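Sample pair:
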Amino acid sequence: MKTPVNEETIKSLSEQFSYLVVDGVLASQFISGAKESLKVLNKNSIPAYIVSGTPDNEIKLIIKKKGLNKYFKEVHGSPRKKWEICQEIINRENYNPQNCLFVGDAMSDYNAARKNAICFLGIVENGKASPFPDGTIVSSVVTLKCSGLPR
């Protein structure tokens, strides 16, 4: 039997789902090396950005609750497309895309990087097959070092 669904029910279910997602992400562990790499970037005054498919309000809440705001110049989520956000940041900040790095775990990350000529590091969990094309640099850890930069 099909039950009719009204806007109030949809809104309630959507809010419950959002709560579960945010709660799950807050409880999750960092990718190995990620927080240390953020500290290195921050110490060397290298700006970092979040460009996520997570809804904008959710990703901003997650970053705030995880205490990570100080590591990111900007945090962006959906509904905007990742490639559009990257393009806008590159143009506004006058970055050379070849001097940028997009670290991601999804094909939409890879595609956003490619569309903007940004270097890409694919994150793939140990033991899992890479979703990225052959030749893509992948790792299960994030290790960014800034040797040679002033401290």
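The first strand starts at residue 49 and ends at 55.
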